[in-house]
Amino acid sequence: MTTAYLSPTMTIGPREFAWGERTHIMGIVNVSPDSFSGDGLSSVEAAVALARQFSADGADILDVGGQSTRPGATKSEAGFDEITPQEEIARVVPVVAAIRIALPDMPISVDTYKVEVARAAMDAGAHMLNDIYGFRRDAVLAEVAADARVPVCIMHNQRNRAASGDVIADIAAGLRESMLIAKRAGLPASMLIADPGFGFGWRPEQNIEMLRRLSVLRALGLPLLVGTSRKSTIATVLGDAPVEDRLFGTAASVALAIANGADIVRVHDVREMKQVALVTDAIVRGWKADE
Predict the structure, then answer these.
(1) Is the entire prediction scored with pTM above 0.85?
(2) Catalytic residue among 22, 91, 136, 231
C-alpha cells in the first residue's frame, strides 16, 4: 500500500513513526467513570497497570482521557455531559505523570479539547494531543500545540453539524478546515494526524460507509487514525450486542480500516487488535516468511 504523505515520518515523544510501513496501535487509557464501554479506571495505580499491560501487548502509543464523550447526554450542546477543566485535570494529569515515569519510552497522547487540560497534561509529560473537535471548537488549542511543538490528532466531529449527504465529502471538508486552523496557528501539517470521527454524529450506515470509503481521505496527505473499538455501530450490526460481545466485530472493522488506509487504530483490546493488525498488514502491505 502506497500513500503520498505530506511528511513520511513523525516524532511523537521518544519514538519516530514511519507512515505506511505498518499499522500502529493506540491503547485507550480511560480515566472517566462515565465511559460508554465500561472501561473507566478509578485510580492512578490501575491506569499505570493497564499502561504496562498495553505496552507488553504491543501498543505503540497510549491515549489518556478523562472526559467521556459518549452520546446521549443533554446537558450541553456537545451532546455529552461536560466536566470542568479542573476536574478533567485532576483525573488526567496524575495518570500522565505516573505513566511517564513507569514507561519513559512510551509516547503519551491526551484526549482533550480543552486548552487548560492540554497545557497541564503537557507539563506533566504528554507528547501529543487528540482533539475530537479538530480545533474547530477552540482554535487556541492549535496555538498551544504549535508553541509546545507537539503533534495533534484532528478529528472531524459531525455532531450538531448539517450533513450534505456525502459522508466522505463532509469529513474531508471538516478536516481541511482543521488543517487551515493549524496552519494559521503555525502548526505544520507534518505534525497532524487525521481522524474521520467514527461514531461522532453519524448514523450506523454512515459509519459503515465511512470505513468502506476511507481510502478517499488519503488524498489529504495525513496519516489516518481510526477509532471503531466497541462502538455502538458495531453493536447495531451484531443485533444490539453488549459491550463485552463486540470484540470480533471490532476486529473486523479494524482489519477493513487498515486495508482502506488506516495508519493508527485506537483500541481497548490491544493484544487482540495487535494480532489483527499484524495479519492485515501482512496481506495489505506485503510479507515474506523468514528463510
Answers:
(1) yes
(2) 231
